[in-house]
Amino acid sequence: MNNDLKMKELVREKYAAIAEQSQTQNATSCCGATSSCCGDEVYNIMADDYTKLEGYNPDADLGLGCGLPTEFAKIKEGDTVIDLGSGAGNDAFIARRFVGEKGKVVGVDFTPAMINKARTNAEKQELNNVEFRLGDIDDMPVTSNYANVIVSNCVLNLVPNKHKVISEIFRVLKPGGHFSISDIVLEGALPAKWKEVAELYAGCVSGAIQKQVYLEIIEQAGFKNISLQKDKAIVIPHAILANYLSADEIAEYKKGQTKITSITVYAEKPAKDERNCCEPGSGCC
Description:
The chain is α/β, with parallel strands linked by helices. It has a single domain, classed as 3-Layer(aba) Sandwich (Rossmann fold), CATH 3.40.50. The protein contains 10 helices and 9 strands. The protein has helices at 3-19, 23-27, 69-72, 90-99, 112-125, 162-172, 198-202, 211-220, 238-241, 247-255; strands at residues 34-35, 43-44, 80-84, 104-109, 130-134, 147-153, 173-187, 224-234, 259-268. The two termini are 26 Å apart.
């Protein structure tokens, strides 16, 4: 099994376990939105607060996001929206309040336990225009030119091949469509030791890439009007760092220029594809 497949299986196993836990349990796992497992204080490390948003469903909130992409996504009534890495359905249900009865929301996730949880949550709310499909987001079970809007919350950094997933987003969006994605990126070099820590990989840190590289991949895929809608520094508390790094390694990290950031990035697929390449979905672009 190659490294990309190993990473995918690692993430799948981790999130299958998370799907069976409550938000409270996830919050104390060092990779949830709030973590108290490493100290007495409760730290809001990654996620923004969803609880005041219309459409919020506490059963679907596992505390695993790092932004509020649906709030920035310019979703209109009647739109078709895809949520990548939809988990238990949190962002999909928020998106549903924008598209209304005439629109549609499709969540895509590669963890069967998450799909089952999301479908149960949708059935409880009797939402007939929200569906969840099992599949990889770098090989989406969706036809080309399907969606008006794509959203994703702290998921793309978990995909080893960023070029492939961004190309898939381009393929699936309708001409003139757009995305709003919240994700974790880096500025500066992440300590090599972190790359070996499975918990951090599945917790959205060590799978992150450089911010500039992330934005370049989006541009290379053919997207236009790329902009940062939000840029928030993530401060990891000393107590959590101590679980993974020695005192000397923590001191070296804090003295360095490494910065972990939650960004929400927006980009549009041109109404006309002028890249002069082969068919969408072939990967050549």
